[in-house]
Amino acid sequence: MKIAILGAGISGMALARFLEQGGVPRSSITLFEAGSVAGGLCLSKTVDGFTYDVAGGHILFSKDAPAMQWMKDEAGGDEAFVQRDRNTKIRFEQEWVHYPFENGIGDLPKQANFDCLKGYVEAWHQRKVTGSEAPKDFKNWIQWRFGDGIARHFMDPYNEKIWKRPLEQITSDWVAGRVPDAPVEDVLRAAVGIRTEGYTHQAIFFYPKQGGFQGITDGLAATLGDRVRLNTPVTSVVKKGEGWSVNDEDFDVVVNTVSLTYVPDFVKDVPDHVAKAMRELEYNGLVTYLIALDRPEHPNLSWIYLPQKKQGPANRVTYMSNYSPGNAPEGKTSFLVEITTPGGQPFPGPELEQDMLQGLETAGLLRRDEVLFIDRSQVNHAYVVFDHEYAERRRVALDWMEEQGLHPLGRFGRFEYDNSDQCVIKAREKAAEMLPSLLG
Ligand SMILES: Cc1cc2nc3c(=O)[nH]c(=O)nc-3n(C[C@H](O)[C@H](O)[C@H](O)COP(=O)(O)OP(=O)(O)OC[C@H]3O[C@@H](n4cnc5c(N)ncnc54)[C@H](O)[C@@H]3O)c2cc1C
């Protein structure tokens, strides 16, 4: 059996390793990778001794302990990682607000604290009294769930920055289960200054000591060796008998982790309506800036959110040098700034950098005379956008892929909001599903 895996990000490489660990000879697996380095969205970059994650700050954490341990083991074991406490805040005016926002409203200036508490209680009361159902669009869902104050001061401006479109165009389905339902008592406590916690599963995280988050995919790539064909974009996938021809080479099985939006470009004879559904799946891109700083120490923060317009286009800043001592030279620190862009459109030019710096200065995060240099990266596919057509387009795309036997896998191979640990979990499941027929 010859197996082709399209794309050597963490999904593709984890699948290859799970197949091998399940008994498939490594020599029967081939990974096609367009890039010059394997790793996809997990890639990192080092410039003058400063390391950053190209697709925004990445941390290793998982509710699935065996999956997380597997990731560590594939990348050198526990000793190759540092453990960190998660300490995230929201920057609001010149205040640091505890995260999540509803657990931190007591840190806000008094008027904003009052607005948020009043709105939260009104929304809570309204839901209890009327039993109203969750609205289907994200804009109205925010009002229904959090009330006017949190919507106005945080949720609306923050989400408009991330999603780059009116929030009415986004469905509220995707938040179900993602945004924990803070009990009203916790919000009342928070408002008067009694500390309450949220998101406890992320309280600690791990990060590779060296090489940035890419340390994880480097571990996988090193084991897979020449089974990963770098600089080898897939340009044609054609059905051939019971199997497939990939770039004119025969394979029995194909697993695709490349974005569904590109599938009609290289898979032959995709029906028009399926190709349309695939191409119209919406996503956002991302521009990241590493800011190398001549500053010996940062406060003990992991990352911060910047909800306010006057804080510039950035939605999140990671304290990259706090993740690992390997991320900056001794006595220096760094920020990693994230700015989303509408998918499929040209990336903004150099003016974006000036807006970003101006915003960070306004937020009181840096002075320009501390900046040693700035390095920019960008990724085409960063966030799946959950617009109202998302579920149907995705269903059409995935049904067709499954029907053809072109196994879809990965964040954009399945168009799911998956972190790398979930990519690993799904690769493990995919391997378990495939192994009986591969070994049979
Ligand atoms: C802003 C941001 C923050 C994140 N934070 C975290 C975090 O803190 N923790 C975490 O665990 N995860 C995080 N993630 C998610 C994580 O990056 C992804 O889930 C994971 O990297 C996706 O891996 P993948 O292999 O599915 O896809 P990808 O990494 O996209 O891999 C697809 C591969 O296919 C290749 N390819 C594309 N076209 C072709 C072609 N024609 N032929 C051959 N190859 C091709 C690409 O080069 C790429 O290597 C974050 C993501 C983003 C965007």
Features:
single chain; FAD/NAD(P)-binding domain; seven-stranded mixed sheet; binds flavin-adenine dinucleotide; globular; 440 residues; alpha/beta; five-stranded parallel sheet
Question: How does CATH name the architecture of the domain at 3-40 and 214-280 and 388-439?
Answer: 3-Layer(bba) Sandwich
Query: Helical content, roughly?
Result: 25-40%
| Radius of gyration computed on alpha carbons | 23 Å
CATH class of the domain at 3-40 and 214-280 and 388-439: Alpha Beta
**Percentage of residues in DSSP E strands:** 15-25%
CATH H level, superfamily name of the domain at 3-40 and 214-280 and 388-439: FAD/NAD(P)-binding domain
Number of helices: 12
Measure the end-to-end span. 10 Å
Counting helices, strands and paired strands, the structural category is alpha/beta
What is the 3D form? globular
Bound molecules: flavin-adenine dinucleotide
The CATH topology of the domain at 3-40 and 214-280 and 388-439 is what? FAD/NAD(P)-binding domain
Strand arrangement across the biggest beta sheet: 7-6-15-16-17-14-18
Overall pLDDT metric: 96
Residue runs with pLDDT of under 50 for 5 or more positions: none
> Major sheet: size, sense and barrel closure?
7 strands, mixed
- Number of beta-strand segments: 19
